[in-house]
Amino acid sequence: MTAPSAPGRSTAAAADDDLADVTLRLGESVRERGRGGGPPAGFRQWFEEFGARAYTRVRPAPLAELEGWRQEPGTGNLHHRSGGFFSVEGLSVHRPQGPVQHWTQPVIHQPEIGVLGLLVKEFDGVLRALVQAKVEPGNRNGLQLAPTVQATRSNYLRVHRGRAVPYVEFFREPWHHRRIADVRQSEQGSWFYRKRNRNMVVETVGEVPLLDGFIWLTIGEIQELLAVEDTVNMDLRSVLSCLPLTGPGLDTVLRSDGSGFRGALVRSCATAAGSRHSTGELLRWMTEVRTRTEVSARLRPLDGLAGWRRTPERIAHESGEFFSVIGVDVTAGGREVALWSQPMIRQHGRGVIALLVADFDGVLHALMHARAEPGFLDVVELAPTVQCIPDSLAALPAAARPEFLDTVLSAAPEQIRYDTVLSEEGGRFYHALNRYRIVEVAPTGVEHPEYRWTAVHQLTELLRHSHYLNIQARSLVACLHSLLEHSGRTARVERS
After folding, report:
1. pLDDT tens-digit series, residues 39-88
2. Please, what is the angle between helix 471-481 and helix 234-241, to 10°?
3. Which of 15, 108, 228, 293 has the fewest CB atoms within 10 Å of its CB?
4. How far apart are CA 344 and CA 327, in angstroms?
5. What is the full DSSP assignment across 137-178?
6. pTM for the full predicted model
């Protein structure tokens, strides 16, 4: 629980002191990591042994024959027979100022808010986080590292009539513990319609039974695993990004000498000074972009979407690009439910999601893009510098080619600070792989109304609030924080 305020001190001042204490303790957990640039000791054996018992067998299934799903008469929308989980519907989008002014597409509609929860506890003076090895039908490698709890409302209310979600009580009744982070965040605005999850980090001091498939790791050990291809899942990256890793004294805890890329990164997390734009200016810019950007997105029947072809097996764009909606039958071990069927989105081609960073007077900044996506609740969120599927650009007007894509793709090896293939959420997306990259460039002014250089500590501050950074940007913030204890480029370690 949060410590009571001292006599004569305001609640706000006590909260600031509490946050500063948490930041330094998190910094100490960042510093505690395995040596040699690989996974922490014992992790690989634990991960592989659990993987032998936990598995998914996924086989394609016609959309029209998915067990437990029905096509709604008159619309063709796909609904689960329970009325829970999610549906696949059509979306009609109008964006008058965009390179494509009107289009239709399938979209996942999941109005319920799920929980992405990370439980932390202090062991021998160091904070450790309880993470799980979790199988999802869309994971290319089956098993990935996930937060303590990763569950939709339908899951934790057991609509599927399966086993209870472990540890969910810590997040459904968080007032019994210390809440380090608690904020609602969006997911992919191009594939979800107004989807949100509650991202939570909760600290407990009580006893926590360690269940099969779970392990306690320091923040630094989890960050090391972010360098291992396709190992840390999207939901854990999202929650990690919400950690308050910014505040005075962090540079001392992390023992930074202030030099080079790492010095600029640590300094940007340890000080609120040196920003190219004040946080107030950034917020006013976001408000202005959101106000002038016209995006009209409304749900419509899935049948008859212009440009899309529906067969009993799948729904795909006539160009063969972008994505398709497929069906799968799943047999799983180590899950609350052992057998189920579902529709999934299959991305066509590997994406590129990249952040340009630069050292302005010793403070690291990231070039953020104010990006509109049709599924966002508030039209625009901050996105990485580049976010696209290059293979699909040929099916779009030339004006849709992202700014700075060539800069990212042509970066010299000595500029690349992070470069790893990671996947998106395996519960809804099938083998959706993207290359996540952080590239350091020379500090230059950018005269573009949709981009702003933003100090790293400002990104952390914005993540204390809902709907400012999109899911791809949050993943890259987690990857950027993983470099706090590294010098130079994070090695790309292929997963065996």
Report:
1. 777 899 999 999 988 888 999 999 999 999 999 999 999 999 988 889 99
2. 70
3. 15
4. 6
5. TT-TTSEEEE-SEEE-HHHHTTTT--PPPTTTHHHHSGGGSE
6. 0.94
